[in-house]
User: Fold these one by one.
Assistant:
Number 1:
Amino acid sequence: MTEQSTNDSPAATYQGLTWRVVALGIVLTPINVYWVLRIETIPDLAHSTTLSLFFTAVYTLIVVCAINWLLRAIAPRFALSQSELLLTYSMVCVGSAMASHDFIAVLIPLFTWSFWMANPTNKWDTLINPHMPEWLTIRDPNITRGFYEGGVSLYQADILLAWARPIAMWTGFIIILVAVMLCLNSLVRRRWLDDEHLACPLVYLPVEISQPRPTLFRTKLFWIGFAIAGSIQIWNRVGFFYPILPTIQIEPVNMAAGLRDRPWNAVDILPRSFHPFLIGLGYLMPSDFLFSFWFFYLFWKAQLVFGAMVGLDRIRDYPFSSSQGFGAYVLFGLYAVWLARDYLKELYQAVLGERTRLSDEREPLPYRAAMVGVILGLGGLVWFSMAMGMRVWVAVVFFIIYYVLGLSITRMRAQFAVPIHSLLSHGGATAGAPAILASVFGTRSFPKGDLVGMANYYWFNRAFRGHSMPHQMEAMKMQDQTAHTSKGTVPALLIAALVGSLAAFWAILHLYYSLGATAKGGMNMWIPRNFEMLSSWLVAPQGPQWGAVISIGIGALIAFFLQAMRMRFVNWPFHPLAYAISGDTTSNYIWMPLMIAWAIKSVIVKYGSHKLYQRLMPLFMGLILGEFMVGGSINLGSLALNLRRPFFYFVP
């Protein structure tokens, strides 16, 4: 198991944040942000932040650890401790999350899109633009022309000044958004990590990598797994240049492409894939969860076929997988609150200054400071929303929904290492706060200020794949393991969020002004949906969407039933959480590798033992690192050679 860093270097007494971590995080975060945006946004092919474990961050950790191992040999006093390495890794993860596929990468074009794309047909000049806040937008076509068409230098005074104000405003908003997450994590950390002993399985790999003398790299099984995954990537890239060579098809191939007759064509997409790193990730997950995941994935496909048979597919967004998933997420969150009710009562007493068994000596923040941070942060977010025109109660409910989902996602990651959590259906329907409020209350219930505000927040509520809140909890877990305190995480991750945000804004503007967002830049295809949605809300206000509302209730009831059966019957095979996330659009690309992982793990556990399971762990960690390191190197080589397509394809 993990060797602690408390006796291995002069830096081993580290009990919090150090200047070396800050300096390294500030240097590495922008590098990773640029890397993420170059492969996710331009040309939108190799996604690193759509899964829970960012391959770019793991790659960076390996490189930093390799340099650190060299320092240990030649200049030990300059070497970083394990806790410093892991806090740096966490900074890179949070900074990369700022630039993720569902965060700032979607935000920047919203500054200008409705003004640049307005025309007599969509009537946005009179329908939308008068209601867009001037302090958050850019209206001058002389500034935005270069952004969309390219071939213009960003580094001109008028262009930089035009972008400065909205970037400053949104950066402040983002820091408050992230700070509230850190405060909430500080309040629940003890309950989840100390009392319930949630393992945060996704920290296993970085903790093993960062050991002063990693046992993982000294096992033959690890290198066998590494060689298998790495060799497949190398062979397939050679086959890319020499098509005469047969390749090993590990990337998604749609098995439903030949289904053209009703009702079977309702399946639409049923990809088979064989990514080794996903099989390795699956090995970290509970067997019942793996079984339930692929079972419920096929169950969602069966719903599509059934809907086509009886005509339900004519209903928009059927089978409402995002709405059902939202109901299950909320039920999961409420169940976690119920389990923690005694702890929350003690926490409330501690915040009031009453004597309890709780001590915040090792906590990231004192309990009272964390609670004040939540209240002030939410107040700041509501004030920002009111400045955009939203009513107070709408803004309050909006952010309650957002943070309830964030806590549920964080809990799921900490307990089960779930690889995806976007709440985005294959048809594009989402279950973020804008969609939930519009569905439950109906757009007719909201004045234009509320609708414009919710639309302006669509960028961080469309999907939740790169959510930074779980990375914060995992950072606290790693610091608990290696430094015996997580006090350094809050300032470190706030710095990472700030640096990551500014780096993301710069990188996107630099790339788009050079290539053109709609020319060669490959701008995120989801950008228009924000304004198409807002336009439909304003032109044709509707009442509650009862299909979505009923589906939220159905999702909660099914999750409740599955959880009740799970508590009543020891061998109940169906996991409620797997039901919640298996309707996710990304599940299309990971269901088969997780099914393979389930089959392998089931055989090992049934015919071997838990000891055998642990002995084989290095093999599956090798599959992850083999694909990450070889594939990551291929992507970096592609970027260095200025090739349009990175040759290694990660999961969408």
Number 2:
Amino acid sequence: MPKPIYSKKPKKGVFSRLMKMLLEFYPKLVPVTIICIIFSSIASSIPDMYIQKVIKIITQALSKDWNWSKASEQIIPMMLFLIILYLISTVAITLYSQLMAVITQGFLNKMRQAMFKKMQNLPIRFFDTHKHGDIMSYYTNDIDALRQLISQGLPTVLRAGTVVIAVFFIMLYYSFWLTLLTVGGVILMMIVAKVMGGGSAKYFIRQQKSLGDTEGYIQEIMNGQKVVKVFNHEKICQQEFDEINEQLYQDSYKANAYANTLGPIVMNIGNILYVLIAVVGGVLVLNHVSNYSLSGSVLDVSIVVAFLNMTKQFTGNVNQVTQQINSVVMALAGAERIFDMMDQEPETDEGYVTLVNAEITEDGSVKETKHHTGKWAWKHPHQADGSVTYTPLQGDVRMVDVDFAYEEGKTVLHDVSVYAKPGQKIAFVGATGAGKTTITNLINRFYDIADGKIRYDGININKIKKSDLRRSLGLVLQETNLFTGSVIENIRYGKLDATDEECIAAAKLAGADDFITRLPDGYQTELSGNGANLSQGQRQLIAIARAAVADPPVMILDEATSSIDTRTEAIVSAGMDKLMHGRTVFVIAHRLSTVRNSDLIMVLDHGKVIEKGNHDELIALKGHYYQLYTGAFELD
């Protein structure tokens, strides 16, 4: 799916989908809130009718020489009714204000939960093809646009729209002529709003995109600050930022210029209309022009005065609706981006073979158990006859004639075969881009192969549930990822139910215990910013310990020691040997000294296996590996 952009108009159906979700989240509170808004809006329109009646009573009293006591008999009940109406309206306003706070924040909370849950189910391909800063903007800029729509835009439009409709019918009740004049003025206001509001909305959408670009650039420079400084790129970065920031300024300036101009123009059209109603109404009254209305009343001063107030309400609320155009457009653009992300195809998993705790009986048969025994088996239900078989988890991994391409037509791996028996150490070497990491991505099923087969303990990995497959694999990447929390919590990430003793034992195995115990709070030292207070080598040691505590039968080490200096590598080598003992291990390494003791070394070039054998065999062959190995020594 092509990545949505801010500069296009929101798709049709986005608003209805948003409203449907809002009702699904709050099926009772939303209707109650709508009723309160409509009631308070209608209540604010009714007083104009009573103002007209009061003025008429007073003018009649003056013409008939009434005293206040006679007039007050009719006026006081009206005043009491209005007071009660306003009190009830105040309660309704207070209630819907509180409910809107609950609905708005609750809706955003549920949306973020739904987005994050969806994100956890997306394939790795999505994160490889989308900028992380852009993904973050879903949770910041786009969610904030929805907040403004739900908390301000929708209530304002509903409230103002209700007032406009109510006042329109009250106007018709009193005078067709003055209503026609008012509607003509409002049509002019809407034309102006469409012309200027359209330009404003266009630039507000561009502003949102420019804001995302600016935030993304700042994040990128912050993450690479050391690189920027060491290569003296401060001035270039400043120039690049100035260009991006200038674009944000231009878009923001134009958006707000339109928006700030629209309000006063529409408001002044309303003021002109107010004057016209007073003048035209006065002329009609003085000339005793026949009045056409639903009430059949004669046009007099009381109706003109009431119309002046209704005109203010009518135009004022139309102006409020036009002011929400920008927030509505921005929110719909943000909602479209969010829905596009939530509509992405989730990671598929047709697997039905699961990993279970197992016991090996004396006769060698495998039995499932609920207790943790340290032994695992694949539970394989056979759909044909309904039988279930158990295969011990050993770590036998075989790739047969595998082809793969990240993009159609651009083959990354071609006819690759790998045979790893339980306990073997298989190494992949070759130039950057040769396909080494891709092989491990396929074993993890981060991506699925285009052709060929991958079998794990004799089972096609497509039949194994991905969560169970990945639970049986340990992974240490070249790029470490530590999370906010203590050191021991980061180690426990590999096995959430691991005890402190198991985590410490794993750290000792990886050679990390020595430096951890010298930290200010030892294993309880808090880490943040991907372990920014640790060296790269120390972060890698914690990542190795995290894999060790998981105790998987298969380990994948993707340049696991590339960030560790020679002295630290010597310290960790013994621990790594213990970690790899009895396990099937796949090693990717540029430092060829780390793969000399591998059972099998596979040399890749442009997605093909061009040589394979152990170290001595490949050196004797004097081929590509020999050149890489001797070249490494020359570099040393």
Number 3:
Amino acid sequence: MSHPADWPAAGAIDLGIHDLPHASSSTEWWYVNGHFTTATERKLSIFAAFFRVIKGRDPVTGELLYAHSVTWALSDPAGGHYWHESRVDKDAPAMGIARIDRGEGVRDARLRRAMKEVLVKGKVPYPDQIFGGDVYVDKRQLDLDFDGLRFWKDDAGAYHLHLRNNHVAVGADLVLVPRKPAVRHGQDGVVKGVSGEDMFYYFLPRCDLAGEVLLPGGVEALSQGSGWYDHEFGLHEGKTTSMGDRKNGQEIGWNWLGIQLDDGRELSAYRMVDEHTGESVGQLAVLVDSDGNRQAWPDFTLIGDQVWTSTRTFADYPTRWRVHVPQAGIDIVATATLNDQEFITVISKPAFWEGRCAAQGTIDGAAVTGLAYLEHSGQLTIADLDGFFSAVGRQVLKSVDKLAPHEPSWEQVRDLVASPQRPQYMQGVDVDQFTRTMIKPVREIVDRGGKSWRSYAALACCDIVGGDSRLYVQWLAMPELMHVGSLIVDDVQDKSTIRRGGPTAHLVYGEALAINAGTACYFMGQKLLTGRHMSAANKLRLYDLYFESLRAGHAGQALDLDGLDAQMPAVVQSGGGDWLEERVLAVHRLKTAVPAASLARMGAVVGGGTEAQIEGVGLFFESVGLAFQIIDDVLNLRGFKGDLKARGEDIAHGKVTLPVAKAMARLEQSDRAWLWQCVAQKSDDQSQIDAVIAKLEACGAIDACAQQARDLVESAWQTLDPLVEDSLPKVMLRAFGWYVLERHY
């Protein structure tokens, strides 16, 4: 197959020509990374990628028009920091809408709707940022200036990189001086792109690295460093990387590894995979010796393990990778020096992982070590919001495990019973007995899994106001313990026999132990109200919100236990009106909405939110919690996704739910009397249950409930929307509101 005339010919690559933008290419990027030590012995790594893609033609001149973007990040493993930034083209909102309309990118329909809602305003969700200034690409020499982020080459052949982060005091001014000639990747430089198209790919595997880095504490000079530069371009003029170009609807992800070994050699390996099947669609490993000579092998394995889960996107990322090339005797493992090197860039895909790794292994039996960069893009483990909340649930269990494991140590029991300051309270306490009587009844219910959105609420509301939820990840267990405690006690009070698909805790452990363990859950959660940067004032405020939710929950349970049966004869006579609905909604609000709102406010408090933001997220989750229970009442009559409950179970139990309350205000007296007679009988006769459901449908009560839930969520969102910046957490919360309303689909 012939390739464009402006691609490199056989022989050495002329960097004076091929570092420049290629007119034949609709996709092109320039990439650098580097590992360095500062004058104060800080060991850091950095990468930056400058992208240019065709976005169309000028309608008057016919000239090609390009979109530009930059992604870059600075890794500080010892400090536990990963500062990353993504800046995108001014046409990114329109381009994002077009991608969504083509069905590309995020697969969940609700997330696409939420994303599009931001894009139609001409904005992109943070952490992506639209270029505030102009973009300049010189066609005569390598000189890229993307709104002040620059990459250029001087007359002596050195590469310069200037980076500054808009949100934090982080940046770099670096110079890369090549020590080896350009090396072709792929088959004589040709590789396959994400659409199956031909791309040309060369790299400079070793450069001297000098300059200075800007950190939150000030500017530091580099004492030593080593850099890497590569350049890739391709596709044919006029085409784009749209889904329509992809063969058989493939979506391609990739793993790329670039290792600089301490013995002067470099190893680069990439593997492109079909995101749906996990099968390889192209791979190559290239070893460059100390003189710049290249050897390549298509047969190798690149396998990741030691999975780390993000607590922002809840995606899974392997953080240890083994590259094994049997034919070359290469067996090297690259391990992340910092797990959290996740790069969130909503406009492309929710996130990818790219960061610093330490490499060690053997080549031909000889030990080798070095530093590496690893990029893991695509192959995301979460396809939709159901998958997202399943992933949250797995992290909730891990969080509970840390606080109340199945086999706790003496120290862990001490922290649950008392504190490190008062170990005497453990005198005479038998750890095994405590585990059997306190922890096991709780874990009996926790381990079956539940609706993890309550746990997500606090973390999401920390991020949505500009905080960092990673500082409070231990909070994931707190809402679950609060909720499970109420479930265990409620089941005793309601004489329930089934909870989360198994026998209730009191059937397994007895009522006395179940009540005690359920109540203890409320106090276990208190142990988690900590954080490295929490002020005394905020901690006091968190305690107030925490106990506010517990007071409300118990008040709601008292009203629920007493019920409305005694008032129903009067309702049958009068129709009830708004009074009956308000009584039903009071229980829903106190038992579900207030705890959700309190957790949301807690997250916003530690996230540094304003008073308006704190109340805004609280109102939103209060409305979502109330809508959640209203939709539960609706789905109990219309059927749950996956048949989680029997249709009409509430009627069989004689419950006065919101649809029944609304029907009482809509029906004639004779129909009201018949309806209450059927409900009060608590009959499991399915024909009678179906007749009640039909009556509720016919009078419009069920539709009215569904509409009320939608109105609650939408009204609360309209209050919250202008209070917080458009961001990934905001997109997630918007989609979550719809998820609650539409979870039966």
